[in-house]
Each structure stands twice: as C-alpha cells, then as structure tokens.
Amino acid sequence: MNLGTELELGPDYDPAPYILPRGGTLYSRDTSQEWARWRRARDSFVPAPKLSIAQYVALTPRRRMLYDLHCAATHANLPILETPMSAQLTQLIETRIKNNALTWGPATRDGVMVTGGGFQGKTETICEIAATFEDYWWQLTDLLAKPTPGTRDLMIPVAYVQTPVTAKPKSTCEAILDFYGAHIPKYATLPQLLRQVRACIKDNRTVVLILDDITRLRLHRADDQDTFDMIRGLMSMQVTLILVGVDIRESTLLSRARFDARADQWIFPEAANISGSDRGLETQHERRFNLLELDRFHYDTPGINAWVAHLTGIEERLRLLEAPPGMLTAGGMPEYLYQRTNGIVGFLSRLISSACECVMAGRDKAEPEVLTEALLDTIAIDPYEAPGRDPAAGEIPHVPERRPQPSGKSRERAAAKRSSAKRRNGSFDDPGLATPHR
Questions:
Q1: CB–CB of 177/93 below 8 Å?
Q2: Is there a domain that residue 7 lies in?
Q3: Which of 265, 293, 321 is the endpoint of a domain?
Q4: Which of 77, 108, 131 is the last residue of a domain?
Q5: Is the pTM of this model over 0.85?
Q6: Domain check: are 114 and 250 in the same one?
Q7: Residue 423 maps to a domain
Q8: Listing from the earlier edge strand, what are the strands of the sheet with 265-268?
Q9: Nearest residue to 200 via CA among 175, 177, 174, 170
Q10: Range of the domain at 326
Q11: Integer Cα distance of 109 and 99 in angstroms
C-alpha cells in the first residue's frame, strides 16, 4: 500500500477522510462498481503524522481527540507489505496476465492457481496485482483505442468473485453475474446462465477472472465436479483464470490433473462430467495451470532477515508516542513475534493492531508508548473474528498458544526479570562438538 504524502499537523490538518471512508461506507469488491471504487481508493489512506509527547500535550482537546482517532485508524489499516514470497509471485502472475491479454489467437489461455495457508495475504496480494494490471490496461486503452460513433464504452477488465460456500454450477454462475450487476432470470436453466456469464465476460471485455476460496469445492460431490468443469471451460473465453485457495495441493482440485515437469504446469483433461445439455458449451482443449504458493515466513537463515525487515516496515507505520527505536526488531522480540504468529502476516497484523489499541488506551498519562512481551502476552489472536471464512475449507489456520499468564507475585517477578535482562535469540547458537562416550 502506498501511504501517500505525509500529513503535517498544521492549522489545515484534517484527518476526517482517513478516519471514516468517504460517504461513511466501507470499500468492498463484491461488484464491478465496488471493485472500481476500491481500486481507485486503495492507495488514498494517509497515516497520522508522528508527534512527540510534548507536541501531543500542546494540542487542544478537540485536535487531540481527532489525532487519537487518526492514530487508531492508522493502526487498524496496517498495509500488506511486500515480502520476498509475494514479490516473486507478483512477478510471475503479472507476466502471465500481460502475455495472455496481448495474445490475439483463440487458443485457451493458461491459468494460475495460488495456494497457501489462511491469513497469509493471498487475496490482498492477488487483488493488488489485478488492480495494478487494470490501471495499466486502462492507460493502454486510453492511449491506443479510438472512439466508435454510436457505441458506448463499456469495459470491466478484472472480475473478482468469491466461490459460494455451497458451490454449485448455478450458484457459481449467479455469483459471477452478481459481480457484473446482470439481471438473473428467476427460473433460468444452467445452460442459460452459462451463456449469460459468457456474454458478460465478452461484452465487458474482461481479461482477468479471479475466483477466490476455490478450495470450497469438494470434487467427490457431483455438483462440485460439474462446477469446476464449468469454471475451467471459461478459459476458452480468452480470460486469465486465477483460482485462489487454501492448500490446493492437499485438496481434491488436482485429483484429475497430471503434472508436466518440463512446463512446470498442471494439465487438466477435457471435461467429462458436464451433463449432456451443457457439454456443447465446453470446448475440447486441455486446461493448463501454474500452481504458485504464497508461503509464510520461515525462521531459518534467509527467513530471519526477511522477517526482521518486515517487522521494521511495520514499526515505521506505528503511531505510538515516543516508542523506542527497534521496538519490534531488537533483542528477542522478533523471535517472540514469530512464535506468537508462526510467521503468518495476517496474525501479525492482528496482534500488533490490538496491542496498539491497548497502549493508546492510556495515552492521557503522557508516557512513552511501548509494545512489550508482557503486554502482547495478554492479547489473544482470534481468527474467527474475520467474517466469511469457511473453517471446513481450511481458511482458519491453527493459532500458536500464548505463554501461560503468571499471577500475583510471580507476575511481578517475571516482569522485573524481563525488564532487567535482555532476552537472547539462541536460534543460531553453535552447541559445539558432542563429547564422545568412553
């Protein structure tokens, strides 16, 4: 996320646009209009300016209240920072989308499957890639396209659709049509819905179709197999099909595919399960997908440096009063945060945001605001707070357990010990050679 121009706390300081979205409504991506609004506004948030305690105390009560709200919004909207894993995935997908979009022939476009665990930023990464491509595609269209008299300019380059929890061919078609805002006949048959989906993709000149949470499909069910065959058939519409899901390798989606090691692709045979009335809509081509993984951080030799760099980026975006440098990166804090989150960026953002909220609750005391292990130990990471997640599809991963909370005098002794002794990271200690038994 681009944080834009840094705000200054001058007489014209107005945090209102960043405390509440314009119009008081949150951005979503459920329809083409909402997707367009999100795409244009995704880089518009600007964090609160950094203030010292003296500057904060000098504010009037009203400006102090507004500043506190702006800081809270800043912590609630921590950006999805680029990681080494997401950077590699971005490069591969951007190349695939552009190559497919610039291909003239009628050949089936190769698709992409993106897998990984829950809360690892798959959806946000893919949506950012698609939005960046759409920005480029609109610029290219404005540069090269010529107006045609008597026609209306209608183009939706990217379509983003969530797979229904109980996905069936009809409900999946309806979810795609809902994105376009198309009218759905009450008693439409599946062939009619399929033709309407294809007409929407063609008429709106869609070049990228994202189907999120694809692992909600369970191919041992006939309806799900028909749905997946129908989805693969859309690749003949010259769109880049991007399927996003949790742990695709362990799901049933690859059960009928074979792996081509030379092309590094999974190859699906032509559909065989679509009913006779619908089979005419399926072209006789193999479907090829690259399977890419957006992995979590790993606490190994290359991973620890990337993890610390990621924590540094988050620390720069926190707006705590006079927080010490290295608050998230010094001593044993990187190791502690990794143990609490297992290297999952979504868990890390939730933990840090909740901790900042707790610290800011005592802001009226005008003391340095610091995130400590003792404070973080009191905060639970609750993945079930995220709406729309399907636990049965593996979309809610295991949360590492917190350290047991001491009580009474043992809690005071533990706090004194943490404040007086610097915790070491012993991950790379050399134990030396083992002493041979005599």
A1: no
A2: yes
A3: 293
A4: 77
A5: no
A6: yes
A7: no
A8: 158-162, 208-212, 240-244, 111-115, 287-293, 265-268, 258-260
A9: 177
A10: 299-416
A11: 9
* Residue 238 and residue 356 in one domain: no
Give the pLDDT of the chain (438 residues) as one tens digit per residue: 444 456 777 777 888 888 877 655 667 899 999 999 999 988 888 999 999 999 999 999 999 999 999 999 999 999 889 999 999 999 999 999 999 999 988 888 999 999 998 889 999 999 999 999 999 999 998 887 776 676 566 799 999 999 988 788 889 999 999 999 999 988 899 889 999 999 999 999 999 999 999 988 877 667 777 888 888 888 888 899 999 999 898 888 888 888 888 888 989 876 554 444 444 344 445 788 999 999 999 988 777 899 999 999 999 999 999 999 999 999 999 999 999 999 999 999 999 999 999 999 888 777 889 999 999 999 998 776 555 666 665 666 677 777 665 554 444 454 444 444 444 444 444 444 444 433
The answer on 383 and 327 residing in a single domain is yes
Q: In this structure, are 215 and 133 located in the same domain?
A: yes
Q: SS in 3 state form for the chain?
A: CCCCCCCCCCCCCCCHHHHCCHHHCCCCCCCHHHHHHHHHHCCCCCCCCCCCHHHHHCCCHHHHHHHHHHHHHHHHCCCCCCCHHHHHHHHHHHHHHHHHHCCCCCCCCCEEEEECCCCCCHHHHHHHHHHHHHHHHHHHHHHHCCCCCCCCCCCCCEEEEECCCCCCHHHHHHHHHHHHCCCCCCCCCHHHHHHHHHHHHHHCCCCEEEEECHHHCCCCCHHHHHHHHHHHHHHHHCCEEEEECCCHHHCCCCCCCEEECCCCEEEECCCCCCCHHHHCCCCCCCEEEEEEECCCCCCCHHHHHHHHHHHHHHHHCCCCCCCCCCCCCCCCHHHHHHHHHCCCHHHHHHHHHHHHHHHHCCHHHCCCCCCCHHHHHCCCCCHHHCCCCCHHHCCCCCCCCCCCCCCHHHHHHHHHHHHHCCCCCCCCCCCCCCCCCC
